[in-house]
Amino acid sequence: MVEQSSVYKYITAELAHAAQAETYALEYRITPDHHHPAALDDAYKGYLALLEKGISPKDIFVAGDSAGGGLTLALLMKLRDEDKPLPRAAIVLSPWADLTHSGESMITRADLDPIITKGAAVFMASLVLKGQSAKDPLISPLFGNYDGLPPLMILVGGREVLFDDSVRVSDKAKKAGLM
Q1: For 16, 48, 62, 152, which has the most beta carbons within 10 A of its beta carbon?
Q2: Does the annotation mark 102 as catalytic?
Q3: CA 1 to centroid of chain Cα atoms
Q4: Which ranges of 53-115 would DSSP assign to H, the alpha helix?
Q5: Domain tally for the chain?
Q6: CB within 8 A of 35, min separation 6: which ones?
Q7: Residues paired with residue 65 on neighbouring β-strands, in sequence order
Q8: Is 27 a catalytic residue?
């Protein structure tokens, strides 16, 4: 079995080559060994380290996939709320943005998604939450305020249980003028 971080290192390397840009792949603390806000704290510190390195926020795009997509959205909200310079834009792939799992696609696409099941998502959410509110925008960014965030690109497949997370984030982003 291929280690997940190896897959993301490969994707990051391919993206760097295609974009002819320098890329950074953040290794952040994950559940079950670490709980919220550990991953967000790591992403925040990683972003600030890029700024301290002298990289202009206008030259930074942040991106994340699944839980990393939700983390990307939460990072943008935290940066905005703390008056830090925002990146130029963000890209999220199938963001896990609603840990209440209220989207219909959790059920309607359950038999179509080859990777994630609602049961697995509910189990992972229980490890992440540890008594915290699933509606906290820094945990479930679907419930956050999108005003003032940078432009956002959202990618999701039509068979995914996270489809509605993406659609609802897209609706909020459009209302905030991000797309």
Answers
A1: 62
A2: no
A3: 24
A4: 67-81, 105-108
A5: 1
A6: 127, 128, 130, 132
A7: 93
A8: no
Assigned domain for 18 exists? no
Task: Please give the model's pTM, rounded to 2 decimal places.
Answer: 0.94
On whether residue 10 sits in a domain, the answer given is no
Looking up residue 104, the CATH number of its domain turns out to be 3.40.50.1820
Contact 47, 28 (CB under 8 A): no
Quote the CA–CA distance of 30 and 162 in Å, as a whole number: 20
In this structure, is residue 101 part of a structural domain?
Answer: yes
Query: Is 138 in contact with 40 (CB distance < 8 Å)?
Result: yes
Tell me what pLDDT residue 13 has: 86
Residue 10 pLDDT exceeds 80: yes
Q: What pairing do the DSSP bridges indicate for beta strands 89-93 and 152-155?
A: parallel
101 φ/ψ sector (left φ>0, alpha ψ -120 to 50, else beta):
left
- Catalytic site residue from 66, 94, 105, 166: 66
DSSP assignments along 134-156, one per residue: TT-TTTSGGGS--TTPPPEEEE-
Which residue has tokens 């002819």? 20
Does residue 85 have a pLDDT over 90? Answer: yes
Written as one letter, the residue type at 94 is S
Q: State pLDDT tens for residues 99-131.
A: 999 999 999 999 999 999 999 999 999 999 988
Structural domain harbouring 97: 36-151+165-175
The active-site residue, picked from 140, 160, 166, 170, is 160
Answer yes or no: is 121 within a domain.
yes
